[in-house]
């Protein structure tokens, strides 16, 4: 298989098993989601892909090449870019300089930034809509702007695999969709930890669900994300419908302890045609707000 494969990956942290026997296949060009509750091991698994953690057992393979055994961190960074939550330490740089660090794996001390490097950085800034902010200090940006700059840095790496750890944190709904649309349009292999199950269902070709460091289910979102599985994994009541625009699964959630809502009135209760008033109150006399005279 061409693409990325986590093959029976095992990670221990502080002596405890955090990820156990995890196999995840990301065929080349697919968008694969890693889902699961807080603490289920998603970030830990992703960190083995971008060389921040070495698996204790198993392997991370890119087109069959073992990233830890056969490639070092620098060679891996020419193939794999990550957009993660850890971005401390870069706060004193300008936006353009942050994005330019994405070119470092492609440069050597004998070949500093080339014209091509500068063009790639300019294009990456443009792709995320941050051209006009290129000279601002990174530290002065909003959370959403920072996220876009860090995506630009990942794009500047010109990776074959993009690892995303909760990439839509801090983003408003329009920016979330823009970011995931942009990522999808790249046509590269994507492995993303996502909490938003609607976004996962809308963007992922395949999802893998983790619980307590182990793989519980994998497959297309429509097959995997059943109300039964969501109840088991996230301990919520889930109501699944089809999104009227995207045609993908769409969810409404309630706590398992939530009382059932009163049943809506049957159509037979309102036999007259045309729009019905929202309540029994006549439209000519709007209800008074509590506390108004
Ligand atoms: N350096 C560490 N030492 C010990 N335990 C750790 C370390 N890093 C993470 N863990 C633990 O590993 C478990 C999995 O953490 P991880 O961050 O991978 O989960 P996650 O699924 O990404 O969670 P979230 O959705 O909350 O981001 C958690 O219980 C966490 O406390």
Helical percent range?
25-40%
Q: Biggest β-sheet, characterized?
A: 6 strands, mixed
How much of the sequence lies in strands comes to: 25-35%
Q: Please give the number of β-strands.
A: 12
Number of helices: 9
Order of helices and strands: EEEHEEHEHHHEHEHEEHHEE
Region (Disordered): 257-293
Domain ABC transporter: 4-237
GO molecular function: ATP binding; ATP hydrolysis activity
Keywords: ATP-binding, Nucleotide-binding, Transport
Summarize the SSE layout with pairings:
Layout: E1 3-13, E2 16-27, E3 31-35, H1 42-49, E4 57-62, E5 65-66, H2 73-77, E6 80-83, H3 95-100, H4 115-127, H5 143-156, E7 161-165, H6 173-185, E8 189-193, H7 197-203, E9 206-211, E10 214-219, H8 221-224, H9 227-234, E11 236-242, E12 249-255
Parallel strand pairs: 3-8, 3-9, 6-7, 7-8
Antiparallel strand pairs: 1-2, 1-4, 4-5, 9-10, 11-12
This protein binds adenosine-5'-triphosphate (ATP).
Write up what this structure looks like.
With 293 residues, the protein is α/β, with parallel strands linked by helices. It has a domain of 68 residues. Helices cover 27% and strands 26% of the residues. The protein contains nine helices and twelve strands. It has a six-stranded mixed β-sheet with strand order 6-7-8-3-9-10, with helices on both faces. It has a four-stranded antiparallel β-sheet with strand order 2-1-4-5, with helices on one face. Helix 6 links the parallel strand 7 and strand 8. Helix 4 packs antiparallel against helix 5. The longest helix has 14 residues. The N and C termini lie far apart (72 Å). The C terminus is likely disordered. Bound molecules: adenosine-5'-triphosphate (ATP).
